[in-house]
Amino acid sequence: MTEKGDKEDDASSQKSKPKKVECCGYPLSIFFIVVNEFCERFSYYGMRAVLVLYFKYFLLWDDDLATSIYHTFVACCYLTPIFGAIVADSWLGKFKTIIYLSIVYAVGQVVMAVSAIHDITDTDRDGTPDNMTVHVALSMIGLLLIALGTGGIKPCVSAFGGDQFEDHQTRQRSTFFSVFYLCINAGSLLSTIVTPILRGQECGIYSQQKCYPLAFGVPAALMVVALVVFIAGSSMYVKTAPKGNIMLDVCKCIGFAIKNRYRHRSKQHPGREHWLDWATEKYDKLLIVQIKMVMKVLVLYLPLPMFWTLFDQKGSRWTLQATTMDGNFGFLVLQPDQMQTLNPILILTLVPITDRLIYPLINKCGLNFSPLKRMTVGMFLAAMAFVAAALVQLEIDKSLPILPSSSQTQVRVLNVANSGVMVTIPPNEPFPVGPYQANEQYMTFDSEQITVSLNTTPATTSTFSVTKAMRQTVVVTPGNVMVLVHDKNAKPDQGNNAVRFINGLTTAVNVTTSGVDYGRIHPSMISNYSLMLQGKYVFTIKNGVDQCEYTKEFGFGGAYSIIIPSPWNNCEDIFEVEEIQPNSVHMALQIPQYFLMTAGEVVFSVTGLEFSYSQAPSNMKAVLQAGWLLTTAVGNFIVLIVAQLAKLDKQWAEYLLFASLLIVVCVIFSIMAYFYTYIDPVAIEAEFKKKEGLDPDKEEKLEMNEKDSVQHDDEEEPRQTKM
């Protein structure tokens, strides 16, 4: 280590020692830290739960762009911890870093909430914001600040909590990290339940606009609370002074070794068998030995990003998949983004089961289920989760409407008269349409005009100009008058139902239901579509002094025309035509893929952290944690690369592509694991010191504070099981 490093280590021994206040044997200061962590995790996961739907339904991005920006944001959240660790350990210290970056974090959350606000001057009549550029710009600024804030404080908060304990309080410190872990998962679980409910509220000006300002505003408020609570405990905290960052020292040593080796590339040096040996002129040999141990593990990390590539699509592709499914479970109705709550629920269930039941049973069977083998199994389970997602997507695709291409149009005939007709639309054969009926399937045409003939006396013929890439209906009204109307051309967003009324009477009617007024519908006229949520509705239909009630229960994502036929008969003859089938594939079919993915996470992530801890020198554990977090960031960038290069039309094919890639990576990793030799870093360090004739007590100045390194590791272990 350099002389500068020695001076930084001397400075690290200085601590701010406030008056000790304890409660039940624990420093009172940790209660502020625990509450802060719960509120911060609620804020982050609450915002993230609804983020991809905000992109799609508020900013009106397509699935691919929404997914790309979502994963770019997640990747940034796992790149910035390196920045936070360097700032905390080399400059500001953990306390000030948490304060300053939490302010940035809170501002980012507030900006996100503001970005979702639109008023009467900024909204079309359909509820769509006019000035979309402002909303997009604010959203990107907010996400950038959030990524900097949440990532920057990640390496600091739990390590700062560990600083509050004395050396003899090992049991209390262990309990603290357990409670810290529970707060992370509790905040995640509660927020992924609450924020989708808040998003589902209606707060539009002219329409049933989803309330994203509220869904982002509550997490913003919780982040402000987290900051206030943390500051409130300031006078009680033990604050460790900045002491230099081991990651910087490692990077400098590696950089010097590469540069020095390149400078002497034409020379042979028998005593330098490893490329890192070229750093011995400037850096201590023990540090180089420790870096060699770390590099062995970092090489094993190379295939790991592919796991996170699949894992983090829970919040993007899987959530978008859920928007095309039926969330009615009878006793409750789940929103698409609420399916993510399965992950923390399953984590809290599977972690103790695997630790206390599955692993002990495997050991009793005499099987060598080593950490690297566990991680291989975890990757395989994640691949199987995407195979399950592909099978679910195939079922969804069967229920989706076949829509016209850009060069085609689709037409059907609806007869609202009380007598049947024979219809001819060349070049098709004549077909009958009974009274109060429509032909079952849309007919596809390539021409821009169609001629519709009715076999009546006398014959009735009309020619219509049709719109390409649209669905249309020819309505046959009483008196054999034909009217061409445009139908819904896609499934309604967010599980809504599109409903309109067709008046087949000779007099005008008024139609109302809870929250919707169709107004006055004149004879042989058709109302506009209104969007309605899942559930049962009672429509009140008034015809002059007479009125009746028509009851209809809607599912998710259907489109309907409800016809009021002539003659008037107190709603008994009202019938409906289903233009787009509602979501028929149940969200429960996503449970297997969530179970497989979470099981893979438990086996892969927790084991990976344990393996990294056991294979790293005590003063290098933070370096490996930074490398571990980096695999998550890289994994999210891989989503963007693969999705852009593949350009697959079918979503199930993309799922299978990702599953196949992970299986290939799984095979590569298993081969690397087979040739990996487990080491004992403590024994290697002791042997090296003995060989070099070093006094271990004097070598303490070459290491970062071991307690702080362990706290950094403890911090990431609970965090990583809930990404």
From TrEMBL:
UniProt-recorded name of the protein: Solute carrier family 15 member 1
Keyword Membrane carried by entry: yes
Localization per Swiss-Prot or TrEMBL: Apical cell membrane; Cell membrane; Membrane
Membrane-protein topology: Multi-pass membrane protein
GO biological process: oligopeptide transport; protein transport
GO molecular function: symporter activity
UniProt function note: Electrogenic proton-coupled amino-acid transporter that transports oligopeptides of 2 to 4 amino acids with a preference for dipeptides. Transports neutral and monovalently charged peptides with a proton to peptide stoichiometry of 1:1 or 2:1. Primarily responsible for the absorption of dietary di- and tripeptides from the small intestinal lumen. Mediates transepithelial transport of muramyl and N-formylated bacterial dipeptides contributing to recognition of pathogenic bacteria by the mucosal immune system.
PANTHER family (alphabetical): OLIGOPEPTIDE TRANSPORTER-RELATED (PTHR11654)
Parts of the chain that traverse the membrane: 42-61, 67-86, 98-120, 132-153, 174-194, 214-238, 293-311, 374-394, 622-643, 655-676
Principal place of residence: membrane
